[in-house]
Each structure stands twice: as C-alpha cells, then as structure tokens.
Design a protein that fits this description.
alpha/beta; 12 helices; about 35% helix; globular
C-alpha cells in the first residue's frame, strides 16, 4: 500500500498503518513542569508552520531567556514528520510544532514524543490533549472562505463550503492542494461528517469547477487579495493577515445555518522529542507557548484562537463561542486517516 502514494504522504501512511500497540505510560513517566531558573544552551525547534507565523513567539521567548539559542527548522508537516522518524535513533530536534492534530497523534504512536504536562495543563481543553500527555494543542483555527470585495457582491456570497462547487464560481476559486496538512485535515473531517462518498463528490466538484490549487495558504490569500481569484478556502487567520496588508477582502464563516455541518476547525500542537538533547529548556519553551504570554502572542500576531481561556482576541476576530462548530472526533479521524489518502488518490485530487 505504501508505494501507491506520493512521498509527501508517506509519513502518514507509514505511521498510521505501521502503528503498534504500546503499553500506556505510568503517571510517574510523565515529565513534570519544573524548569531551570535560567535555561541555557541550544534549542532545536522543528515546525510544520511557516517561519513568519512562529517567529514572533520564538523572538519573545529568546528575549525572556537570552541564554537560549533557538534554531528553527521549518517545512511541511510531512517533511518534518519524516525527518523525525528518520532521526528517531539519534534525535536532532528538541520540540516539534505542527499545523494540525493528526500528525502529532500519529507521531506519538511511534514514540517520537516524551510525555510532559506543562504549567497550566489543566486549564487547556481536553479535546486538544494527548491521552498520555505526549502532545498538547496551542491554538485553534477555523476553515473559512475569504473573498475579494472588489469582485464579489454581498448578494452573491456563498454561505457553505458546498457552494464552492457551484458552476458560477468556475475558475474563480483558489485553495491549498492535497499536500497541505490543513486541507488533508479538512477532507478527513468531512469524511467523518458526511461520509466518504459525499466527500468524494465534493472534491470532484472542486476539480470540475477548475479550482486552482496552491502549495500553501499564503499564496491563496495573496492571490485573492490581488483580485486574481474571487474566493479562497483558507484557515481564518490568513484572511486577517491579508486584510492587515490593506487588501479589500471579506470573510465568510461557512455552514452556520440550521441543518448545516458547522464550521470545520483544527489546532496547532506541540510536543517534546523523546531523546531531546536539551529537555529542560524544551520544557521551558513549551511552558512559555501555553502561558498567557505565549498565547497572547499567537492571538495578537497571527489572529489565532488561543486555547487558553481568558486571552483577548484580535479586534474584529469572530468569537468562536458565537460560531456553530462541526461536531467531530479528532482521535477517531486520526485512526481512519488512511481513508483520506485513499480518497485523495481515487479522485486524483492535486
């Protein structure tokens, strides 16, 4: 089964089909949140997030702990996950930050992370915690439709992701392709919500509608902002980033009407690498990411939804409590993730 997928997917196929059952860790095996007063040394951070979205919080961490040298290596979730698997016998990273839950959960099944409960662990939602404390959620992101206000009138706006297959939008939509982790997560979520057949029909509808697929959402938001496309399917904060650059763009939180699926969301996560060369400083870093200080940076710099309660959102960001969110079981989705890639291959989704 492995050889029928492109290399970008192989980490998921490997970790989800080759998982072995492991005994749960005892409570004593979970690392405490105690940290050195003055953490020092090199901290190697692997990130599935692009550098501009993670640099602000790293810069703040280094300002607080100037004796720590942070080395950041960014790439796609798949690339970074593959690297971690290849380096498992001799880990080079201390921390991994992902763009979604599925990669984190799958890697935890391979023993890539060491359990750790950061300070304030009990204040973070259980939905975005590993059962064995091997990873924890950082921020939540919503899947939205952004549009160019110069080319789309209010009366013709779509209200659902399923409207994106309407022929009236043919050739006028941009989205991230199947190698993008957020798109993969959306497809997996849709399979759980509406079934594989209807999800396949939606994907085929996007193809029939001549949607242009990019490698990432930054290209999508910029293309919509420039008026090259009328609509773009993105994580919500890409709209706000484009708006901040002065583009005349709008946002649609889809599927909010009675009987619709609700808005699909996911979360970024972080985990400490098992065998980290600097675990104490890694613990300090994770503590910082989930602290009110770190969470505030994600909210202010990236327009994200912090998972820690009580953090002030960016101005104009729709409170997530006002949104009807899709009812999905993240862990169940992870365990069925191979179906997502089977479907992507079946419809030849780019």
């Amino acid at each position: 089964m492995l050889n029928k997928f492109m290399p970008i997917f192989m980490v998921f196929i490997f970790i989800l089909s080759a998982c072995t059952t492991t005994e749960p860790l005892s409570e004593s095996a979970v690392f405490s949140s105690d940290e050195p007063v003055n953490p020092t040394g090199k901290l190697v951070v692997y990130s599935g997030r692009s550098e501009p979205l993670i640099q602000p919080v790293i810069a703040a961490f280094q300002a607080k702990y100037p004796q720590v040298e942070v080395l950041l290596k960014s790439g796609s979730n798949s690339q970074m996950a593959n690297t971690l698997l290849e380096e498992k016998a001799n880990p080079q990273a201390d921390v991994f930050i992902t763009t979604e839950v599925f990669t984190a959960h799958a890697l935890s099944q391979e023993g890539i992370f060491q359990p750790f409960e950061p300070e304030g662990y009990q204040n973070l939602p259980d939905t975005y915690k590993a059962d064995d404390a091997s990873w924890i959620g950082l921020t939540q992101r919503m899947r939205v439709i952004m549009y160019n206000k110069d080319t789309v009138s209010p009366k013709e706006l779509p209200t659902s992701i399923f409207d994106l297959t309407d022929p009236k939008w043919k050739g006028q939509i941009a989205a991230a392709g199947s190698t993008n982790a957020s798109m993969q997560a959306q497809i997996a979520s849709m399979i759980q919500l509406i079934g594989e057949e209807k999800t396949g029909q939606w994907l085929q509808g996007l193809l029939d509608n001549k949607v242009t697929f990019f490698g990432g959402h930054s290209d999508v938001r910029k293309a919509v902002g420039a008026g090259e496309f009328k609509l773009g399917l993105v994580n919500h904060y890409y709209y706000y980033l484009q708006l901040a650059e002065g583009s005349n763009v709008g946002i649609i939180y889809p599927d909010q009407n009675p009987g619709e699926i609700g808005i699909i969301s996911n979360a970024t996560t972080v985990g400490i690498i098992s065998g980290s060369k600097n675990p104490t400083t890694a613990k300090t870093f994770v503590n910082f990411l989930v602290s009110s200080e770190g969470q505030k940076i994600f909210a202010e710099s990236n327009y994200e939804y912090p998972l820690l309660q009580g953090i002030t959102l960016q101005k104009n960001l729709e409170p997530k409590d006002d949104l009807i969110q899709a009812n999905i079981d993240l862990i169940q989705i992870v365990n069925q993730f191979d179906e997502t890639f089977d479907l992507i291959e079946l419809v030849n989704f780019p």
